[in-house]
């Protein structure tokens, strides 16, 4: 789960991390009120969307010469003008794609006199089972170019969660940032605070870009992105309450309500599978047969009739779907029960695209019999390869 910049900063502040003063705003009036609470005379007005590259982004509704989604304002009147420009308009960045994202929230912060910009991020290194702390002296909007063109300027420090953050990790961060004196001590402290927040909140990613050194010698988190392990949110109701569903795909939001794992893709073959590994294999074999999956959808091991119906509705909400492949291994859930759910769901949603079903496992013959006697144009498949070939053929025939 992702959250907005201002929400991430509020969480980090609870762990003692230094951040500039700032306030969120949903309206132009709230943005003006926020600016009046800040000392000024410089303010920063930031569009709040779940995507990076806001500073270099462009608003669809504004001219090509218009400023991006992060703006320096020299007065309260400038803050008001920027808020009017941004709110309700669509910001397109390198991470949003051409569709962009509508800006419904702003973050108005106090201006900071910047001496240097750094980069610091924490990630889960799944290969080693450790936390990777990524550090660079080249913070700012072009960090992707730094990673591509001068990777030697990026240092990765691995931390074993069983051991935790140790003093030598902090020293390694400060050394990588080439800081000495009081700034060296501050860097060690900030690195520990960020690690503590990352672990305590079950973070998946915490990116500080930039971490800035101010002209009066302080380290502040100027911008941040943070995401969390969705499977651990039950432990963090405060974090879960920060979810902004308007920033998410509506189909993915609906899927989460039914405990379905759904991710929209760019193809035309809808997939309904139980088990993540089987789902990946199903998508691969669809591509092998010359078509492309429209989604990843894992109904889990205990798929009920209601869950299967919800899954069908979600798949069909995508206008790009021209056919559906169901690939179910009946282990915990028996194939006949799955078949009943498929038939009921197909009737409930008035299915009007080709449907191929491959069942395997407990009571598979009963399941196939239910499908064959349903009176619906459901095509049964003997194995995964057969299923993929049949759905691709059916879609081509219906085109």
UniProtKB/TrEMBL annotation:
Q: Which reaction does it catalyse?
A: GTP + succinate + CoA = succinyl-CoA + GDP + phosphate; succinate + ATP + CoA = succinyl-CoA + ADP + phosphate
Purpose? Succinyl-CoA synthetase functions in the citric acid cycle (TCA), coupling the hydrolysis of succinyl-CoA to the synthesis of either ATP or GTP and thus represents the only step of substrate-level phosphorylation in the TCA. The beta subunit provides nucleotide specificity of the enzyme and binds the substrate succinate, while the binding sites for coenzyme A and phosphate are found in the alpha subunit.
The root-end lineage is: Bacteria, Pseudomonadati, Pseudomonadota, Alphaproteobacteria, Sphingomonadales
Class of this enzyme: ligase
What InterPro entries does this protein's entry cite?
ATP-grasp, ATP-grasp_succ-CoA_synth-type, ATP_grasp_subdomain_1, Succ-CoA_synthase_bsu_CS, SUCC_ACL_C, Succ_CoA_ligase-like_bsu, Succinyl-CoA_synth-like
Lineage, top-rank taxon, reads Bacteria
Query: Gene3D superfamilies recorded for this chain?
Result: ATP-grasp fold, A domain (3.30.1490.20), ATP-grasp fold, B domain (3.30.470.20), Succinyl-CoA synthetase domains (3.40.50.261)
Q: Which cofactor does it need?
A: Mg(2+)
EC number of the protein: 6.2.1.5
Q: What is this protein called?
A: Succinate--CoA ligase [ADP-forming] subunit beta
Q: Which stretches are annotated as coiled coil? A: none
Pathway the protein takes part in:
Carbohydrate metabolism; tricarboxylic acid cycle; succinate from succinyl-CoA (ligase route): step 1/1
Q: Which UniProt keywords apply?
A: ATP-binding, Ligase, Magnesium, Metal-binding, Nucleotide-binding, Tricarboxylic acid cycle
Positions contributing to substrate binding? 274, 331-333
> Which Pfam family is one of this chain's hits?
Ligase_CoA
Domain ATP-grasp: residue ranges: 9-255
């Amino acid at each position: 789960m992702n959250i907005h910049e201002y929400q991430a900063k509020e969480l980090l502040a609870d762990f003692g991390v230094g951040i500039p003063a700032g306030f969120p705003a949903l309206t132009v009036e709230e943005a003006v009120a926020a600016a009046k609470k800040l000392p000024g005379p410089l303010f920063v007005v930031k569009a709040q969307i779940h995507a990076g590259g806001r500073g270099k982004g462009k608003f669809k509704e504004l001219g090509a010469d218009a400023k991006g989604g992060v703006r320096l304002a020299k007065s309260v009147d400038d803050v008001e003008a920027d808020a009017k420009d941004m709110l309700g308009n669509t910001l397109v960045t390198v991470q949003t794609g051409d569709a962009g994202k509508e800006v419904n929230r702003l973050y108005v912060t106090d201006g900071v006199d910047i001496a240097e910009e750094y980069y610091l991020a924490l990630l889960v290194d799944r290969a080693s089972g450790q936390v990777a702390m990524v550090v660079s002296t080249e913070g700012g909007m072009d960090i992707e170019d730094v990673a591509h063109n001068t990777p030697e300027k990026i240092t990765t420090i691995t931390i074993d969660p069983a051991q935790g953050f140790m003093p030598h990790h902090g020293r390694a961060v400060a050394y990588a940032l080439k800081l000495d004196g009081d700034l060296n001590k501050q860097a060690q402290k900030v690195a520990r605070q960020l690690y503590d927040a990352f672990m305590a909140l079950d973070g998946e990613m915490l990116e500080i870009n930039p971490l800035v050194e101010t002209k009066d010698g302080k380290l502040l988190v100027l911008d941040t992105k943070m995401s969390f392990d969705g499977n651990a949110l039950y432990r963090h109701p405060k974090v879960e309450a920060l979810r902004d569903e308007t920033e998410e795909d509506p189909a993915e939001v609906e899927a989460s309500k039914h405990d379905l794992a759904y991710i929209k893709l760019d193809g035309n073959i809808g997939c309904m599978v139980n088990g993540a590994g089987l789902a990946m294999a199903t998508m691969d074999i669809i591509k092998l047969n010359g078509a492309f999956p429209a989604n990843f959808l894992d109904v889990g091991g205990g798929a009920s009739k209601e869950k299967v119906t919800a899954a069908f509705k979600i798949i069909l909400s995508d206008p790009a779907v021209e056919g559906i492949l169901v690939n179910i291994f009946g282990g915990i859930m028996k194939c006949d029960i799955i078949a009943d759910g498929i038939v009921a769901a197909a009737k409930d949603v008035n299915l009007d695209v080709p449907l191929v079903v491959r069942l395997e496992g407990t009571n598979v013959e009963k399941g196939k019999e239910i499908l064959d006697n349903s009176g619906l144009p459901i095509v049964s498949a003997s194995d995964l390869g057969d299923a993929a070939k049949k759905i691709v053929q059916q879609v081509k025939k219906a085109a």
